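Each lists sequence, tokenised fold; shown next:
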Amino acid sequence: MSQDKIERVTSSSSGVVGRAQSIARSARLLLDSSSRPQPDALTNSEAFLAGISSCGVTLIEMHAQETGIPLTRIDVTIEGVRMAAEPTRFARMTMTFELAGVSATQAAELVETYRGR
């Protein structure tokens, strides 16, 4: 029997054009199209970026705890830039990590752990 972990999300129409409902396990999330004039919910692009930045937070927190590094807080900001000529693609993304409770060397090692995974 395989030990592979399967992640499953089902997305469907919400009844509002330009808004989808996504369900994972029992968690429900509404997502608006990034091209909606005035989105009310998180947009698809924002959710994509949030997935990446929240992965940075949780991976670094858990690694710090497992290795005894005294991390007390982490904030990760991600910014995606899409060019007007190609609005459906990110031209570049930048991530900024702010870590508290650790030395500069420990912070650099924790961020490198994230980059390596």
The two ends are 25 Å apart (CA to CA).
